[in-house]
Amino acid sequence: MVPLKRRKLLSTQTGNNGNSGTDVIGVKAPVKFPDVVIFLLERKMGASRRAFLSQLAAKNGFHVQETFSGMVTHVVSEGNSGAEVGSWLDSQTDGSAHRPVHLLDMSWFTQSMKAGRPIDITDTHRLQVDESEVEVFSVPSFACQRRTTLENHNTVLTDALSLLAEMAELSAEEGRGVAFRRACAVLKCLNEPVTAMSQLRGLPCLGEHSLRVIQDILENGASSEAESTKCSERFKALKLLTGVFGVGCKTADRWIREGILSLQQLTDSAHSLNRAQQAGVDHYDDLNQPVTKAEADSISVIVEKALVTVLPGATMTLIGGFRRGKQTGHDVDFLITHPEEGAEVGLMPRVVSWLQSKGFLLYQKTTRNSYLEAKDGPARPASNMDRFERCFSIFKLDKQGPGLQSHTQRATDGEGSHFGDAVDSVCEPENGQIKQWRAVRVDLVVSPISQFPFALLGWTGSKLFERELRRWAGHEKSMSLSSHALYDSTQRTYLRATSEEEIFTHLGLEFIPPSERNA
Ligand code: UTP
Ligand code: MN
């Protein structure tokens, strides 16, 4: 596939890919050498020099084509490597290049002009296609056009770039963060490890800074910038403090400026924590330990049980990273709906109070559904904030695993609220006894069935994949995509969908299954 950017760049000089190109317009003699059809590559040569040389050749009876076509026999370029021209040629022929075409340096052209005829091609005229440069990667520019599995062949590079992205995000520099995330995502979808900078030519989203980081790693085995960031006091403190549930980078930054660099300093300080942050401190270790798929499945069983009890017919889907096939996550995300539109109204408070009554919740905060479909389209700029009924919670998960012995027992024993017990049992291991449960972050989202495919797509992630979907919708399709709806600004209408596949079709994208959305 051809990177979009490059296609745009080249489109000024390559009007068509058909079998006949456009000849150079201007003064010219009759074609004297019908077997030779020249195409001058504008890249690095520049438009005016190209026009001058074209006229010169035409005057001398050479056949020069203005646009590239299947008739071209000699591609002449200046200052480009064989790999560069080769990958350009691939882009012209959709990569199907069997190449009857000669890729030539300017020396062949000037000597031929001097001789007044096409001279014999020697090795000095031929662009050298260095073997190490042959494996040039080529990917489309939007992450939502690419298939990114969890198999990553460039973890050293992506770890470094992710770390720099994280530091940018923790410093509230969103633009920088996104740039690193995009670069990282491009490397994640390559099917082989990168071994030389020359392989990256023509890849989208690799800015100067990211390229510098990559080069450092290829040459020295590690990125000095990533290493020094990782070791910096500021990074460590930001990570530690934002690791507290309910603490964002702004709050962390304020605390650091007050000299708070550790949890001990935080609890010793006079700061009053809000309810979320207090829960975050209480369950710090648990919440910073990855959630396993087995734990996610255990929680599924509990949520399923709640639904069956409070609204039979309601369904839930595991979303987020686990739907993409990840084996661990920072939380567990569920999307709940009911096949009958409207039946889901008021569902969340009932689910939550059931969970509370059985002692499964250590913390919860529910927000109400505030989504209203505006007739004249969504507000601009298209908000990526969800307005679903949503519950941010911390579950108390029995460590006994899928059996969940003690909780299932309580869930069915018909007794009243155990919520108090649960909160009171926030305790450290006593007398060498190991704690029998652990705290797990769980996000519950309720969607009406009419918005379900949009919610499913929007909540499956990855975050970058979602961002790129919205960017694609806006930039390429003049549409606005959210987790609630897809609006076509040109037709001034909402596009309905009953499946994720239909949304991809509306967007003019190939369907990418969840397991390949790990951008
Ligand atoms: P998560 O933050 O849970 O990410 O959001 P994740 O991919 O599951 O990663 P881990 O494994 O937990 O660390 C899941 C998806 O939900 C969307 C995000 O875009 C992400 O793709 N989301 C999350 C929203 O749309 N809105 C939110 O407020 C939060
Ligand atoms: Mn998640």
Verbal overview:
- It is a single chain.
- By secondary structure, the chain is an alpha/beta fold.
- The protein folds into four domains: 4-133, 3-Layer(aba) Sandwich (Rossmann fold), CATH 3.40.50; 143-230, DNA polymerase, domain 1 (Orthogonal Bundle), CATH 1.10.150.110; 241-282, DNA polymerase, domain 1 (Orthogonal Bundle); 291-460, Beta Polymerase, domain 2.
- The protein has helices at residues 4-11, 47-59, 82-92, 106-115, 155-170, 174-188, 208-220, 224-231, 233-242, 249-257, 263-268, 275-282, 284-287, 293-310, 320-323, 347-357, 405-412, 419-424, 452-460, 463-477, 500-506; strands at 37-40, 63-65, 74-77, 102-105, 291-292, 315-319, 328-329, 332-337, 361-367, 389-398, 437-446, 479-481, 486-488, 493-494.
- Strands 6-8-11-10-9 form a five-stranded mixed sheet, with helices on both faces. It has a four-stranded parallel sheet with strand order 2-1-3-4, with helices on both faces.
- Strand 3 (74-77), helix 3 (82-92) and strand 4 (102-105) form a beta-alpha-beta unit.
- Helix 5 packs across helix 7 (208-220).
- The longest helix has 18 residues, at 293-310.
- The model is unreliable at 1-19 and 403-427 (pLDDT under 50).
- Bound molecules: uridine 5'-triphosphate and manganese (II) ion.
- Manganese (II) ion is lined by residues 320-321, 329, 331, 333.
